[in-house]
Amino acid sequence: MPRLVSRATTRKHIMREVYDYSPPAENQQIVKITASKGNNLHEIETADKTRFLVSMPMRYRHYMWVKRGSFVIIQHIQEGVKVKGEIVRVLITQHIKYFKKDEIWPAAFYEKPELEESDDDNDDDIPMNTNRVQAMIEISSGNDSSEDDPSDGDQSDDDSVGET
Q: What's the gap between Cα 69 and its chain centre?
């Protein structure tokens, strides 16, 4: 009879694996998740821009999730036709920083800058709230006559000053 392990013990072992900062082995590769295809299959993109499917191992399925844009370490499967690899480890931001510092990170994944925290509050990156578009149009249409050509209002004031 096989020995059953509690969920807490399984989670403890998986979390221990997550915080392992060892670099990928020779037969392993850092890749980026591009899409989730269902049934714990994910489409990945390698550093040389090739795409194929990888699977999530059973031990991770209830404890870890990956989303589009996440980075993982995979191990290639020789007998795979469609599914050509298996996820070995899901990388978190601390892994990425550590690998970049040690120059293990693939150069192809440096292309897009990571979101960095900044002190200035720049609202240019925030998309417009579509629920407020009508209200903004009504507000701006009421003020359009005075805002469109401020010189008209200034000329009338100047004319009235000159006439008195």
A: 5
Name which of 28, 8, 6 is nearest 89 in CA terms.
28
Cα distances from 71 to residues 92, 99, 110, 121, 138, in angstroms, run 8, 12, 12, 28, 45
Write the DSSP string, 16-48.
HHHT--PPP-TTEEEEEEEEEEETTEEEEE-TT
Helices 133-148, 150-163: crossing angle, 10 deg rounding: 40
- pLDDT tens figures, 90-99: 999 999 999 9
Instruction: Report percent pLDDT > 90 for the chain.
Output: 42
Asked if pLDDT for residue 45 goes beyond 80, the answer is yes
Cα–Cα distance for residue pair 85/52, rounded to 1 Å: 8
Phi-psi region of 97 (alpha: psi -120 to 50; beta: other; left: phi over 0): alpha
The Cβ of residue 64 has, within 10 Å, a number of other Cβ atoms equal to 18
Q: Please say if the pLDDT value at position 154 is more than 70.
A: no
**Going by DSSP bridges, is the β-strand pair 28-38/41-45 parallel, antiparallel, or unpaired?**
antiparallel
Query: pLDDT value at position 41?
Result: 95
Measured CA to CA, the distance from residue 17 to residue 95 in angstroms comes to 12
